[in-house]
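EI: anyone free to look at a 179-residue chain?
SC: sure, send it
EI:
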Amino acid sequence: MAEQQDGIDLLIHDHREVEQLFQRFETGADDATRKQLVEQITTELSKHAAAEEQYLYPLTAEAVAGGADLAEHSVEEHQEMKDTLHELQGMDATDPAYGQRVQELIAEVRHHVEEEEGELFPKLRQAVGQDRVMELGQQLATAKKMAPTQPHPKAPNTPPANKVAGPIAGAVDRITGKG
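SC: here you go
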């Protein structure tokens, strides 16, 4: 059996990995490196968002007082992020608007992370207890392995449809070399 992992700690670890990519982008890398970093950011955020939408937000809506509103707000922020990531895929890194859009994405994601870590995660941990947080960790880890690696802004982002569409999109992403 795989080693169990605290689901909230797993998500915080993801947040830190993406923040490191943001910081590398912000250090003023050349256009090719910036494009490569955005591709890495896209992959990490796509997998992370899919797992959260499949397991974190439904659990939050179910277990936390006011959790349905928190979850809905988070899904809306994810949709904005997916739309921006999708837009960036069609842009050239030499386009002056490219860097500006990436900076907007970074600001959006940092705001989202601050909300999750400052409000959602503590409330969820208190509401469900450590055993359920550990179960969540297993669900998230499994979901991330099959998750899309690219933004699919028109795909469903709530259960049950996203639990079907996400792994299919993830398989397509990997088959087409985008994962």
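EI: The domain at 7-153 is CATH 1.20.120.520 (Four Helix Bundle (Hemerythrin (Met), subunit A)).
SC: 👍
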